[in-house]
Amino acid sequence: MKAGFVSLGCAKNLVDTEVMLGIMQAHGIELTANPADADILIVNTCAFILSAKEESITTALNLAEYKNSGKCRSLIVAGCLGQLYKRELLDEMPEVDAVIGTGAWNRIMEAIEETLSGRRVILLGEKQIIYDAKTPRIRTTPDYTAYVKISEGCNNRCAFCSIPLIRGKQISRPIEDIKSEVEQLAAQGVKEINLIAQDTTAYGIDIYGKPKLVELLRELVTVEKVHWIRILYAYPRRFTDELIDLIASEEKICKYVDLPLQHASNKILKSMNRPDTRESIETLIKKIRAKIPDVVIRSTFIVGFPGETEEDFQELKKFLQEQRLDKVGIFTYSREEDTAAYDFPDQIPEEVMQERYHDLMSMQSLISQELNEALEGQELEVLIEGRDEEVQQVVAGRSYRDAPEVDGLVYIENDGRSQEGDIVRVKILAGFVYDIAAERID
Questions:
Q1: Residue 19 contacts by C-beta under 8 Å, 6 or more apart in sequence?
Q2: pTM (predicted TM-score)
Q3: Model pLDDT, residue 392
Q4: pLDDT tens digits along 367-392
Q5: Judging by beta carbons within 10 Å of its beta carbon (0-12, 13-18, 19+), is residue 299 exposed, middle or buried?
């Protein structure tokens, strides 16, 4: 029996995919990268915004073609789209044999057995769950890097966000369990650990009564062979002085701060149900930069949120001009059902959102290029990810400044020695909007 898998969306979803793969393999199912050879096809879907929902549906329909052209006897839709639209998916897509919600990844074998017996099923978790260090898992990331999910769900109620509706309230894993997983990964040769959650700075509140990210990090930095620990999705509200000091003092923790800020107008932040203000955000950024030399700050922002006036937009633009953040993602507002903002008045026309999006992106591109050009002549450690297929003497990698999948790359010229997974020292030759050119010096 062979199974094929497509994983969409964020790294948190990817971890769910990897544990489902592990469970299937543990039950004797062979995994294949060729969907034409698969008896079972599974798509782990994303439903965060409209475009993600559309991609998920299109992917499921494309896989359904293998029921005619391949061996597929079971098509399973898992993940966020399944959680939101369980009955609609089964009713409106006869090609789909089973729907698995986000809290039911551990029931993947039940779904397979039911569908191969000819039954169409919806499987949801009775309660929210998160994997642990003993859960079978097959990593789909390169051998040298891995994602570690430290908590599931979210207690924030941002007006635009459907994640709490899909994933439920926050549940955290115990510190000891996370450390055990990181020790296993290190023994397998993983050099970079990327800690993920919907809100990493809220980690531990549900089981310890207060945030415990600092305590978790203090344990993880003791794990031998781990070279980098990267913290992603760190909300500003609980980004404490203690956390800043720990990042500044610990070599293993990447000097990389991922702060999802969303806006800079106090009016819009309040309407979004965000606890931050422009003043508190600017104070935090100033403090981070003062205490962590060479820190990289990444953030995401939404344009076109209901009620966003031209004045609000210009305030956001001015904020980005002044703060000159290293990495910035801009998104247009997506109107999601059952979120608070769905029924807000003064919805912004699509053409206005697009205009504001392109305005900010073009401005930020110039800032990013200037910041990268300012790095010329400096030295960095780079984790090698692979060799250029067309120019064999060029290898690509990432420094502490670059998170997997979302940031740029460092291209090392005239390097015939470096292998995937190596960590090498380079001198920066040229900076561009997203990427950097360098030469190896060790």
A1: 105, 106, 131, 135, 136, 137
A2: 0.95
A3: 87
A4: 999 999 999 999 999 999 999 888 88
A5: buried
Say how many residues make up the chain: 442
- The pLDDT assigned to 169 comes to 93
* Cα–Cα dist 413/418, whole Å: 11
What letter represents residue 217's amino acid? L
CB 397 within 8 A of CB 409: yes
Query: Can you tell me the distance from the alpha carbon of 247 to that of 230, in angstroms, rounded to the nearest whole number?
Result: 10
* Cα–Cα dist 187/196, whole Å: 20
List of E strands, 207-290: 228-231, 256-258
d(CA 252, CA 228): 5
User: What are the structure tokens assigned to 354, written together?
Assistant: 């697009």
- C-beta separation of 420 from 142 below 8 A: yes
Q: What 8-state DSSP symbol labels residue 232?
A: -
Residues 37 and 72: their CA atoms lie apart, in Å, by 8
Here the tokens at position 135 are 């859960």
CA distance 256 to 293: 11
Among 147, 153, 260, residue whose Cα is nearest residue 207? 153
In the structure encoding, which two tokens stand for residue 82, read together?
């399944």
> Look-up: residue for tokens 């790359």?
409
Kindly tell me the sign of the dihedral angle through the C-alpha atoms of 433, 9, 153, 161. positive
Going from the C-alpha of 173 to that of each of 31, 157, 165, 196, 197, the distances in angstroms are: 28, 21, 20, 12, 11
Q: What is the pLDDT of residues 52-82, one digit of tens each?
A: 999 999 999 999 999 999 999 999 999 999 9
296 phi, psi to nearest 5 deg: -110, 130
- Residue 283 neighbours by CB distance under 10 Å: 12
Q: Are 115 and 122 in contact (CB under 8 A)?
A: no
Residue 126: is its pLDDT beyond 80? no
